[in-house]
Amino acid sequence: MTRTEFSVWCASGIHFLDGATGSNLMKAGMPKAVCTEKWNLEHPEAILALQRAYLQAGSEIVYAPTFGANRVLLANHGLEGEVLKLNRELAVLSRQAVGQSAMVAGDMTTTGRPVDPEDNGQYAALLDVYKEQAEALLEGGVELFAVETMMGVTECMAAVEAIRSLCDLPILCTLSVQSDGKCYFDGNAMEAAEILEHLGADAVGINCSSGPDQLESVVRGMKKACMLPIAAKPNAGLPQILETGEAVYSMMPEEFARHMRKLADAGATLLGGCCGTTPAHIAALCKLSR
Fold this sequence. Notes:
The protein is an alpha/beta fold. Helix content is 46%, strand content 16%. The protein has twelve helices and ten strands. It has an eight-stranded parallel beta sheet. Strands 8-9 form a two-stranded antiparallel ribbon. A hairpin with a 5-residue loop joins strand 8 and strand 9 (247-249). Helix 3 crosses helix 6.
């Protein structure tokens, strides 16, 4: 899909992304503290079933399970040398799951390390990290990029710039922000929307962070700050942390969909879910929004 085609598609109405990956994989048997990307390749039936369930629920874009497959995060598991293999093969696996019935987005995220906007060396190093992952995802045949759960404006800039140096595919960039729109590293959601539009992003928005009931003002602010389509992919409410350390999300599909309707009214046209959401949440969202 070209950037122009993506823009036309977005302008045609509300469209639907997928929901959570990690929390559903753990329900399917993935142990804690493992490398999710490596586990997916070793147990492909779990991600295949999940992505097919999202397709059945109404998702029009599914995210390849490459969320943490950059060299910085993979180094936590001693897998920094497997960036190409993991990204390429997981992108192919997602295509196997959905065929031509949905678009496959190359999923990229934060390294978890703040970058000083004034430090050119740090920024150049981050560009290399994102460029390496983007190259691998292109080899896997992704149709667009989903840069998500970003913690600051500077790292968003690096990711978008890295992708743009390689290709002209659409880029959707979403940040994890506080309820007032402030980023956890640097900047805020409104600044990000304006800056990323000029850098070549094709859609911007928020994901993760909190539940949809907390983000209406952020969506409205981002819509005012730029001319791009706005994405909303929040959690299924705020989690309750059990004594075991497990996060339990209590917002049921119908309640989630009702709150998401308010985000659509505030200007979001790309709707999906993050932590705690399931195919049932996406199905309820699609039913309510169409």
